[in-house]
Amino acid sequence: MRIIILLFFFLLKINVVTATNHPYSDRSPFYDLGEEVENEIKITDKYKFPLPPGKWKVILYSHESVDTPYLNAKGYVLLNLVNGNEIKEAIEIVKIHTGVQYVNRVDWYIVEEITFDDEDEGGCYKRPEYNYLFLYRKGFGHNCLRIAGKDIAKKSIHDEPEDLRFNRELRSKYKFPKVLLQSYHSFYSRSTKPEMFIATYYMNSKFLGAPALKGDIETSEFHPFNIDGHPKHKKALAEFVNLAKKRHVNFEKFADAPTKMKLKLGISNNLKQKKINKQNFVSQLQILEDLYKKGSLTKSEYEKAKQKLLKN
Questions:
Q1: Taken in order 23, 29, 30, 31, is the CA torsion positive or negative?
Q2: Most buried of the four, 84, 180, 265, 303, by CB within 10 Å?
Q3: Peptide bond into 177 cis (omega under 30)
Q4: Three-state secondary structure along the chain?
Q5: How far apart are CA 192 and CA 136, in angstroms?
Q6: 167-190, pLDDT tens digit by residue?
Q7: CA separation for the pair 283, 306 (Å, rounded)
């Protein structure tokens, strides 16, 4: 069960001292703890995970091999800080190599312990505390996005004494509310590659104009039972959901998710659409110029049509 401890240790129960002091941590081959990175972070030479804008502080690297059921996981925790020690955002990134041996056992393990965990960490199925859940699942493969508030101080059955100690150290070193907004992104398809990817984003809702309560998640304004009574928090959640959907589109691209497994999130790729619009504009402008040169349009007609095209 150590792989579960590894995965959910990343839920902001973060090592704030040295990596060698934590039983699941090693020195990153690419970065020092405390180093700031931008644009992307290298998990391995092959996998470079794209990061949101800003400077991200590396505060944890973990490399864990598990003999049963033969998994190998690597991951980071990164913080986007303001005013020195206030957490604006955090990211947890995990890549799990599932191997090519004992395939059936490994795949069942992922389904039972990660995709549909029925304990207190939450899996990819409907739960009352989730604001949104988007899921594709067929066979052993899945593509999951879930969005909810996360009470990072809540104890877990997976916690060990050192996890609780690091949680306390985190709260003493960094400033942040007890409840953060969380989007969890997970993808696995052995037919695509023997790798599972998990990315979890956390955001301090203060920076969306709606600070959260310091109470439990059940009393938070962001809980589905409460949010309708808090317009500012509902608006902040809507902004976070929109951001989470865009990030999941990028996450699917990173994980090489096949088209049939992509989630229907109701958003389009804006960059792709802008490229198409630009191509259409250039093509139509060229047609107008050809018609003008051939004498099919007067100069007045050409200028009028050109201005209309520019406005559109």
A1: positive
A2: 180
A3: no
A4: CHHHHHHHHCCCCCCCCCHHHCCCECCCCCCCCCCEECCEEECCCCCEEECCCCCEEEEEEEEEEECCCCEEEEEEEEEEEECCCEEEEEEEEEEEECCCCCHHHHHHHHHHHHHCCCCCCCCCCCCCCEEEEEEEEECCEEEEEEEEEEECCCCCCCCCHHHHHHHHHHHHHCECCCEEEEEEEEEECCCCCCEEEEEEEEECHHHHCCCCCCCCHHHCCCCCCCHHHCHHHHHHHHHHHHHHHHHHHHHHHHCCCCHHHCCCCCCCCHHHHHHHHHHHHHHHHHHHHHHHHCCCCCHHHHHHHHHHHHHC
A5: 15
A6: 777 778 888 888 899 999 999 999
A7: 12
Give me the amino acid identity at 43.
I
Measured CA to CA, the distance from residue 235 to residue 229 in angstroms comes to: 11
Q: Do residues 101 and 69 lie in contact, with contact meaning Cβ atoms separated by under 8 Å?
A: no
User: Would you say 281 and 308 are in contact if contact means Cβ atoms under 8 Å apart?
Assistant: no
Question: Is residue 102 very low, low, confident or very high in pLDDT (cuts 50, 70, 90)?
Answer: confident
Per mean pLDDT, which range of 70-74, 227-231, 250-254 is the poorest?
A: 70-74
**Domain layout of the chain by residue ranges:** 2-261, 270-311
- Residue pLDDT, tens place only, 195-245: 999 999 999 999 999 998 877 788 889 999 999 999 999 999 999 999 999
pLDDT on residue 21: 39
| Of residues 312 and 180, more confidently modeled | 180
End-to-end alpha-carbon separation of the chain, Å? 58
Rounded Cα distance, 79 and 143, in Å: 25
CA distance 231 to 237: 10
